[in-house]
Amino acid sequence: MNAQDLRDALANEPFRPFTLHFGSGKAIDIVNPGLVAVSRSGRTAFAFRPDDSGSDVIDVMLVERIEYREKPRRRRSA
Fold this sequence. Notes:
This protein is mainly beta. The chain is built from one helix and six strands.
């Protein structure tokens, strides 16, 4: 994946939530494009979690695929 792929996914109208999948098995849900910033170079992105539980620094070159979904996933209570 490259930076333009990520920028295109964030700019979809209407926005469609998606998950970024990494080769390590890690996955990051993107449910609001306003919570993601892509660096000028496009190598790095920064994503805040919608529940204010933290954020993720994303090495865009390590993203293997984008999986679109129709509705945001709800987290289960522990």
